[in-house]
């Protein structure tokens, strides 16, 4: 997971985060804007330009973003 995050930050690759919030699993698609190692949080800019701040412990999986085919 570390290598994927570092590569995504270097090359501005969008990722899909599976996050546990409010007793539900949700997905956030976007780019990592910043990693705060002291507070242990990701700052993610979603694909619809909203800023999401997610604690490391809430992240259950990270994948490369794949656009859904309609």
Could you please describe the fold and organization of this structure?
This protein is 14% helix and 53% strand. The protein has 70 residues and is mainly beta. It has a single domain (2-64), classed as Roll (SH3 type barrels). It has a 5-stranded antiparallel sheet. The protein is globular. The relative contact order is 0.27. The mean pLDDT is 93.
CATH topology: SH3 type barrels
Helix content: 10-25%
Number of DSSP E strands: 5
Strand adjacency order, main sheet: 4-3-2-1-5
Quick recap:
Pfam families: YolD (PF08863). This is YolD-like family protein. It contains one helix and five strands, in the order αβββββ.
Secondary-structure blueprint of this entry?
Elements: H1 2-11, E1 15-21, E2 24-36, E3 41-46, E4 51-55, E5 59-64
Antiparallel strand pairs: 1-2, 1-5, 2-3, 3-4
List keywords for this structure.
single chain, 70 residues, mainly beta, SH3 type barrels, globular, YolD-like family protein, YolD
